[in-house]
């Protein structure tokens, strides 16, 4: 029994350490399925020096970030989004988003994550993934010589023609006796060459990309209903006897308040008919503070047709 008790303590201690680790940091991966290279900007800071197709940013400590994706191909429109990497309980997760070209050939990033998984300590990404630890210094502005910079060497030669005089001192070996002779050569010339080096360099300055702040539409990024207020609202919906009345009451509450994806899912479950759940899920999307977690609303449906219909609705809004 003593050994069993000791093992139990170790087991639960290990679980506690893992839980603490998971709650401290989250990770974000964004990849282009079609190989379109891009720069990733998080909260106004560029993360990669060179455009990449698969970027993983680790050690994120906040539940919500504003991101901007700038494609290397300037013909593609930038993507600006507010994303959540925490679940409804505030636990930071390992979230992956996919960029995929639509029917027109333009890259799009879905509103819903491609995958959401618990953070695993010691996880090793694939070799083709560019891993960045959030908070490292961003790429600085760099001044480099422009192509075609030239260095010009100029030489100036001056030639003088005429008499050249040189003095020659001759010491005769006796104290105080010396001869100073001046020799003149009328045919002599003197040439002076002056070399001037001129460097002409044109430089260009690479500037760190500073995106404009994203515009928050509707309830995205705002404060949701407080837990106590939401429970009172949920009780008011449950007091209604008919599904249609529950739906109208729920729409009235959502129209005047912001909700989390988890709260919207709870309201959906108060209704018996999936058609009414789907109706409310569509209506409440614009009132959701964390649309990146809206995939959780899919759990209220028993039929895949309704899930597909909701996903189409969301995609069309984007």
Query: Helical proportion?
Result: 25-40%
Low-confidence stretches: 4-23, 138-147, 149-153, 201-217
**Integer-rounded radius of gyration:** 37 Å
**Terminal residue distance:** 60 Å
- Shape designation: elongated
The count of β-strands is: 16
Main sheet specs: 6 strands, mixed
Q: Please count the helical segments.
A: 6
Beta content comes to: 25-35%
Overall pLDDT score? 77
Element-by-element helix/strand order: HEEEEEEEEEEEEEEEEHHHHH
Could you say which structural class the secondary elements and strand pairing correspond to?
Answer: alpha+beta
Structural features, described:
By secondary structure, the protein is an alpha+beta fold. The protein has helices at 2-24, 227-238, 243-256, 261-268, 274-284, 304-317; strands at residues 26-32, 38-42, 45-46, 54-60, 64-71, 79-84, 93-101, 107-109, 115-118, 130-133, 142-145, 150-161, 164-171, 178-185, 189-200, 203-206. Strands 1, 4, 7, 8, 9 and 10 form a six-stranded mixed β-sheet that branches. Strands 3-2-5-6 form a four-stranded antiparallel β-sheet, with no helix packed on it. Strand 13 (164-171) and strand 14 (178-185) form a beta hairpin. The longest helix has 23 residues, at 2-24. The chain is elongated, with a radius of gyration of 37 Å. Residues 4-23, 138-147, 149-153 and 201-217 have low confidence and may be disordered.
């Amino acid at each position: 029994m003593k050994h069993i008790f000791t093992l139990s303590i170790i087991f639960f201690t290990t679980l506690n350490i893992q839980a603490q680790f998971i709650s401290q940091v989250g990770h974000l991966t964004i990849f282009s399925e079609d190989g379109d290279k891009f720069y990733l900007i998080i909260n106004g800071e560029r993360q990669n020096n060179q455009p990449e197709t698969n970027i993983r940013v680790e050690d994120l400590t906040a539940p919500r970030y504003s991101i901007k994706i700038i494609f290397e191909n300037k013909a593609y429109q930038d993507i600006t989004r507010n994303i959540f990497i925490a679940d409804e309980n505030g636990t930071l997760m390992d979230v992956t988003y996919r960029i995929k070209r639509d029917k027109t050939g333009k890259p799009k990033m879905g509103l819903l994550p491609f995958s959401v998984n618990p953070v695993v300590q010691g996880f090793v990404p694939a070799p083709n993934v560019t891993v960045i630890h959030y908070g490292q210094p961003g790429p600085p502005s760099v001044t480099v010589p422009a192509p075609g910079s030239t260095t010009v060497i100029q030489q100036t030669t001056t030639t003088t023609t005429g008499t050249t005089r040189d003095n020659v001192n001759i010491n005769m070996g006796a104290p105080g006796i010396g001869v100073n002779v001046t020799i003149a050569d009328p045919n002599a010339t003197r040439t002076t060459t002056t070399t001037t080096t001129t460097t002409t360099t044109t430089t260009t300055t690479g500037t760190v990309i500073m995106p404009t702040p994203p515009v928050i539409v509707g309830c995205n990024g705002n404060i949701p209903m407080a837990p106590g207020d939401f429970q009172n609202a949920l009780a008011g919906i449950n007091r209604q006897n008919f599904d249609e009345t529950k739906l109208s009451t729920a729409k009235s509450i959502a129209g005047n308040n912001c909700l989390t994806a988890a709260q919207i899912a709870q309201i959906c479950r108060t209704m018996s008919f999936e058609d009414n759940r789907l109706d409310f899920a569509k209506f409440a999307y614009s009132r959701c503070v964390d649309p990146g977690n809206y995939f959780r609303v899919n759990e209220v449906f028993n039929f895949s047709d309704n899930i597909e219909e909701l996903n189409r609705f969301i995609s069309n809004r984007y």
